[in-house]
Amino acid sequence: MASLVQPVHETETSSEMAQPQTLDGARVRTDFPILIHPAEPGRQSLIFLDSAASSQKPNVVIDALTAYYRDYNANIHRGVYHLSEVATTAFEDARKKIARFINAASPRECIFVRNTTEALNLVAQSWGRANLQPGDLVVFTEMEHHSNIVPWQMIAEERGARLAHVPITADGRLNLDRFDEILEEGPKLVAFTHVSNGLGTVNPAKEMIAKAHAAGAVVVLDGAQSTPHFAVDVQDLDCDFLSMSGHKMLGPMGAGVLYGKKSLLDAMPPYMGGGSMIRKVELGHTTWADVPAKFEAGTPSVGDSIGLGVAIDYLNELGMDRVWQHEQELGAYALDRMRELPGIVIYGPESAELRSGVVSFTLGDIHPHDVAAILDEQNIAVRAGHHCAQPLMRALGIVATTRASFYVYNTPEDVDRLVEGLYGVYRTMTGQPSPTMSSARVVPVSEKSDGDHAPCRAKWDAWNHTDEKQ
Ligand SMILES: Cc1ncc(COP(=O)(O)O)c(C=O)c1O
After folding, report:
1. Class of domain 14-58+319-459
2. Residue with CA closest to ligand 1 atom 7
């Protein structure tokens, strides 16, 4: 594969003059201390391929968090002293950066929450309670993360609303014919993910939103797996709501965003009551503050939100187009190399163009948790499980996959290590030096006489009883 590491092509007047045309993952990696720690004795260097769950953090974000706590830690919006003013300004500046990043019409349309889960629950509980009537239809899809299913089930049950879902096609795309048919029933709300965390499928969001609007629905777009990876323009997409998880886009855990059109947010009741979200409190009655404060009850994650703003600065410096190109190239290279593995099934669309940098797969009848646990012995971090998408797994006829996901700091060499690691998985599980799945008998971990991988089985049993984080 052609190297992703390209020389800087300078143009005379461009403001991006000093930036390379493509992203240099190896250079980017040096900004991430966790990725350049010397390997522990006896271990290989870390290959981190689980950014779809949570990305690593660059020095600038870690430094921003430290600076907040060291230099200007204070509660915001309520202090009249200097420190509080500095913290408030930094917090509100982060909101402005987020608004620019997704091209919101105003920072007031960006509400700080902890993560996508909280953003989606906010819409379900606030908009849903105020707008859903018995018999109304709420639509989501078969490829959703649980956080874009369960909140709708909860509010639908409370309000007596009906649910419908858009199924997936055999190659892991949304069945848009079924989508059109469901829209004919006039749903009140349509919620879907921009990019699937379990498959990497990039959904045709703009087209789907236009159709849903034409059918009279409000549209909630789950941006957890899109906003970290490519430029998302909420005005161009015309979504009514968009959710973001800062921890998946180089930011700290604890800072996420709900974008909502101001007209909708203004008309919605608060989600939580308490400090900061009020205009006037009397003993018998309270009036609400304007958005975004109306939805930000209590003390927010000030440092984390500021850190998210810095993560966005960092992504902007890399350039979101370059970020996306880098991931698509890595994803395409991974698909090419991984297809050579005997017995592999890769889920999601065939064409790399319809996919993000997520590769979800099974290896013959080796359990995905065994694959991940054996890769971990080579210090390759991948995710295994149902990825908080049990309906999707059911549609695929499996219980779990192993998932490798790529981000700005990954390189083609990481893909090579992964592929070598997967050959190692075959060797461990079959005891054969040169595996072919047609001839190899895969020995279940529980049957292995040396007991080496008993811990994998124990982990699997434990995982089986939890709703492991995606
Ligand atoms: C598509 C999608 N939606 C929602 C979520 C939930 O995100 P969070 O755990 O940050 O709330 C995830 C997390 O992986 C996801 O991938």
Report:
1. alpha beta
2. 116
Distance of CA 215 to the CA centre of its chain: 28
Q: Among 192, 388, 403, which is best to mutate for testing ligand 1, by the most ligand atoms less than 8 A from CB?
A: 388
Q: Whole-angstrom distance between the N-terminal and C-terminal Cα of the chain? A: 30
Q: Which of these CATH numbers, 3.40.640.10, 3.30.420.40, 3.40.30.10, 3.40.50.150, describes 61-316?
A: 3.40.640.10
Residues with Cβ within 8 Å of 72's Cβ and at least 6 positions away in sequence, in order, are: 83, 86, 87, 90
Please give all residues whose beta carbon lies within 6 A of any atom in ligand 1, as ranges: 53, 115-117, 145, 147-148, 193, 197, 222, 224-225, 245, 470
pLDDT digits (tens, 9 = 90+) for 138-172: 999 999 999 999 999 999 999 999 999 999 999 99
Secondary structure element (H or E) that encloses residue 458, with its range: helix 454-464
The residue whose CA is least distant from atom 12 of ligand 1 is: 224
Mutate to test the pocket of ligand 1, among 202, 232, 245 (most ligand atoms within 8 A of CB): 245
Q: Where in the chain is the domain with CATH 3.40.640.10?
A: 61-316
- Report whether 118 contacts 150 (CB < 8 A): no
Summarised one tens digit per residue, pLDDT across range 246-287 is 999 999 999 999 999 999 999 999 999 999 999 999 999 999
**What residues does CATH 3.90.1150.10 cover in the chain?**
14-58+319-459
Report the atom number in ligand 1 closest to the C-alpha of 256.
Answer: 10
Longest Cα–Cα distance in the chain: 76
Report the alpha-carbon distance of residue 271 to residue 153 in Å, rounded: 17
Hey, what amino acid is at 42?
Answer: G
For residue 52, give both structure tokens: 């779809």
Distance 432 CA to ligand 1 centre (A): 39
Run of H or E residues at 288: strand 286-288
pTM above 0.70, yes or no: yes
Cis (ω within 30 of 0) for the bond into 252? Answer: no
- The identity of residue 382, as a single letter, is V
Ligand 1 atom, smallest distance to 119 CA: 11
Residues assigned a catalytic role? 388
Q: Looking at the CA of residue 222, tell me the nearest atom of ligand 1.
A: 3
Closest-CA residue to 359 (of 174, 203, 172, 231): 172
